Amino acid sequence: MKRDLAGSRILITGASSGIGRSLAEQLAAKGARVAASARSGAKLTELADALNARGGDVLPLQADVTVEADRQRLLDRVVDFFGGLDVLINNAGVASWGHFADSTEEILRQVMEVNFFAPAELIRRAIPILVDGRQPAVVNIGSMCGRRGMPAWTEYSASKHALSGLTEALRGELARFDIDILIMQPGLTRSDFSHHFLRNEGRMPIDFSAGMPPETVAADIIRAIERNRTETVLGSDARWFLRFQRFFPRLLDRLIARRVRKLYETS
Fold first, then answer.
1. Which burial class, exposed, middle or buried, applies to 138 when counting CB atoms under 10 A from its CB (0-12, 13-18, 19+)?
2. Does some domain include residue 4?
């Protein structure tokens, strides 16, 4: 199946920066009608103004996806403005960088609310709308941590594993409605994601500037949507790491444990 995104009505969460912003820019350039959602109204307005000035059809929608009233309002506005919805892209996310034993229940719940419960409930409310869409699809932006949990990314890994499980279960359920459900598992991406960590106490050095450009990630995601790929791992680092996990899981456990012990050795 080849999905034609020209004219498609697409809702993107977390669209004010990073991967979400790049998705909005590239989809608008392809002729899609884009509803760009995020908590930052000013950034969304600036994005929509710039894209619409270039002939795009972009609707900025300020919303907090963890709030039920905001989720419903998002979908209502998309239907009112575009007449329906064809593709829902759940991109909004948050992370905590530090060990679980030193974290809090509040952080765990906040990560799960943004990364799992919000997309789950947005999907639930979007299904009756997507049923009437053209080549309808749900696209969840996961992470390589959604296939291999990593130390200090504990809450984030748990939330992305949950999103992967939800995606797999819904794929069978939504088939009767002819709604495709896809998941993208990107590796390290160059963005301002680290500036918004709920905690930033991990000891392992991570150079986000060496990650994939968000424009490249967005282009790969769009290609996967067009080709209707069920699950796509993005980035050579993620592909290599998950391949190693598949064939040598116990060895990987030992290597990771050894690295963590070294990081926490006292002199």
1. buried
2. no
